[in-house]
Amino acid sequence: MQQTEFGPEGAYIRWTESEGVGPARVHVHGLGAASGPYTAHLSAYPELAGRRTLYVDLPGFGISDRPADFGYSLEDHASALAAVLDAAGVDGAEVVGHSMGGSVAIVLAYRRPDLVSRLVLAEANLDPVPAPGITSSGVAGWSEEEFVHGGGFAATLERVGWLWRSTMRLADPLALHRSACGLIRGTEPTMRAMLTGLGIPRTYLVGEVGDGIDDLDGLAAAGVRVVRVPDSGHCIMFDNPRAYAAAISAAA
């Protein structure tokens, strides 16, 4: 396990990694998840073996610290991820981001193009959600006080399935809520605009029965390679890990 400081003084973001050659591959998890259980198993597939691979836990999740004086916006998470790559001596990485992790990866590539040579995005959030009542997994529907101290976190854990609950229950409630709100709020320019404007190779993976991402044709027209992964939903890495590993490898 390795760590480096980010944001507030004395706060550390942590990651594990496997040795290998070639450009580093960096896995970034989604909201309420952690990189180890969501992605470490993928390196067992021959097509992904042999590369230096970093498994990063974003602030507030997994094994990373969870400071209360951190914003947890997409930009904040991207800055923390940049601190990891700088500390690890990584540039020109292939960044593989799932869901919110894909959004963070887009912001990282937009703000620090030296760090990212290729993006592989799995069901990444691309647009803010302005409509009333639409929230990221229901978390952002609560006020921060209600979610953290008024039973919202417990109610959310009760509502989600066992798989998501297994890592979400390890997340810091404040970090989870602020991250969900940041995802709903989005960025300026939007994540979609950042993605379509990038000049690096970009692959967008869609679960066959996933979340129904808007305007995939527009992504393709902007040069983003769109790949539908069969027999999978939003969590492609669990539903069809072999096909997910193959799709990541094919993006290289």
UniProtKB/TrEMBL annotation:
<protein>
    <submittedName>
        <fullName>Pimeloyl-ACP methyl ester carboxylesterase</fullName>
    </submittedName>
</protein>
<dbReference type="Pfam" id="PF00561">
    <property type="entry name" value="Abhydrolase_1"/>
</dbReference>
<dbReference type="InterPro" id="IPR029058">
    <property type="entry name" value="AB_hydrolase_fold"/>
</dbReference>
<feature type="domain" description="AB hydrolase-1">
    <location>
        <begin position="28"/>
        <end position="132"/>
    </location>
</feature>
<dbReference type="GO" id="GO:0003824">
    <property type="term" value="F:catalytic activity"/>
</dbReference>
<dbReference type="InterPro" id="IPR000073">
    <property type="entry name" value="AB_hydrolase_1"/>
</dbReference>
<dbReference type="InterPro" id="IPR050228">
    <property type="entry name" value="Carboxylesterase_BioH"/>
</dbReference>
